[in-house]
Amino acid sequence: MRTLIKDGTVVTASDTYVADVWIEDGKIVGLTHPAQRGALGGTAADHTIDATGQYVIPGGIDCHTHMELPFGGTTASDDFDTGTVAAAHGGTTTIVDFAIQSKGSSMRAGLDAWFAKAEGKAAIDYGFHMIMTEANPTALADMAAMVREGVTSFKMFMAYPGVFLVDDQQIFRAMQRAGELGALITMHAEIGLPIDVLVQQALAAGRTAPIYHALTRPEVAEATGTERAIALAEMAGVPVYMVHLSAQRALERVMEARDRGLPTYAETCPQYLFCTEDDLRGEPPGQGNGGESDEERAWKGAGYVCTPPLRPRHHHDHLWRGLRNYDLQVVATDHCPFCMKDQKALGRGDFSKIPNGMPGVETRLHLLWEGVTQGKISINRFVEITATAPAKLFGMYPRKGSIAVGSDADIVVWDPTRSKRLGTDTLHMRVDYSPFEGRTVPASPSHVLARGELIVHNDQWVGKAKQGRGQFIRRGTFAL
Ligand code: URP
Ligand code: ZN
Ligand code: ZN
Fold first, then answer.
1. Which of 236, 257, 286, 346 could form a disulfide with 264 if both were Cys (CB 3.0 to 4.6 A apart)?
2. Which protein residue has the closest C-alpha to ligand 1 atom 5?
3. Beta carbons of 448 and 455 less than 8 angstroms apart
4. Bond preceding residue 398 cis, omega within 30 of 0
5. Is 65 in the pocket of ligand 1 (CB under 6 A)?
6. What is the pLDDT of residues 307-348, one digit of tens each?
């Protein structure tokens, strides 16, 4: 079966040109100028997609998702079925999710648990990072087995004492081991122990509303964690990747490291580019309708509780500049949805019990496109931060992340005129609110192809199979 995407404008991280894209057996097999179409013998297609006036871009790669993550006494509401279907509707064709090595249990058990969650369910291709909750000799030995299986990156936390936090000695040992194996350590770089003190003090003072989640996790806690993670990586002589970087001072630590030539990388997420700390306050007191109490209005901020927290608006400009200037390499989502009803509600009266995370896997490209239309990033940079860079950093390039002969035909036909209103009624994520409810974005995918199969057309799932069509991606070792 041969598919032709004709007359579109192909965009890669480096180039923009009009071309026909030929697809066979799930791979891109040719890129030709439309004028050559008639001249090429035997080039009839079984299926043709007319992409005139549209962009043909690599399928998005979201290298930070948490499907079915157990957290704070509940479980993230999207599983590998609903979450990957939603991702595909938004133009993402590969995710890298976080498996967990639970304390006292093996990495093997953690990986098997994540295989069980994904197999037979995922609608798009997926890989796994491994969250390390301890770096004892067994775990350090097990890292090699993970890498052999294509799990070539590990996440460690300086935050969440008693749950995920590991100390510097363990981080350092894991970094050294990662260096031996060609794996990449990714860091949640907020210093969790002093944050915990601030949280306990706020609660003791009766400060229980969602906004205190942000006020007890100051920017300096992330900047210090970032600096420490960079120092540990420098001592170990290895690269390090900061996940979900949210703020100016943390970014400055990354910039300093990169200026010194260190292999320091960082991602940010749409919520840090589009939402602010004020969202955690809910609606301003006295401005709600229907006589809601101030407490009721303040509670609406719970939908914006994620970690690190949302920051004041001025951080946005710094993060966009970081993306433009290559100090930030990736925009991933940290997709970790919890419903307001029953899940976020666990933290009514105690912000520290609100499960941390926001939905986002479906809306990343929609939102970031605003950066292109507003001149904050080029269209090529848009492709790079959403697909090419995560593919390269996480060992999937050139199979994924580009429009090139031999690459998987993971392709989005992106219609710059196809506007969409974001809301729970138009989105597919299994969550009962949208942080962007009512926002209209100017562009969206008209066609989404995954390994050559048209799976989404004009917001409708048209793929033959759905659950289980996604394949596990064995990722390569770090090679930048
Ligand atoms: O709020 C967040 N980020 N939830 C997911 C866990 C994490 O730290 O990435
Ligand atoms: Zn994290
Ligand atoms: Zn996360």
1. 257
2. 357
3. yes
4. yes
5. no
6. 999 999 999 999 999 999 999 999 999 999 999 999 999 999
How far is 57 from 80, CA to CA, in rounded Å? 24
CA–CA distance, 47 with 56 (Å, rounded to integer) = 16
Nearest residue (CA) to ligand 1, atom 9: 334
Decide if 350 contacts 336 (C-beta within 8 A): no
The residue type found at 38 is G
Strands 2-11 and 47-50: parallel
Instruction: List CB-based neighbours of ion ligand 2 within 5 Å.
Output: 188
Each residue's pLDDT tens digit, 369-402: 999 999 999 999 999 999 999 999 999 999 999 9
Cα of 438 vs its chain's centroid, Å: 22
- Determine the residue of 271, 306, 344, 358 to mutate for testing ligand 1's pocket, defined as the one with the most ligand atoms within 8 A of the Cβ atom: 306
User: 296 — phi, psi (to 5°)?
Assistant: -60, -45
Kindly identify the ligand whose nearest atom is closest to the C-alpha of 187. 2
C-alpha distances (whole Å) from 168 to each of 105, 174, 424 are: 21, 10, 41
Token output for 2:
């041969």
409-439 in b/e form (b: 16+ CB < 10 A) is bbbbbbbbebebebeeeebbbbbbbbbbeeb
Alpha helices (H) in 160-191, listed in sequence order:
168-181
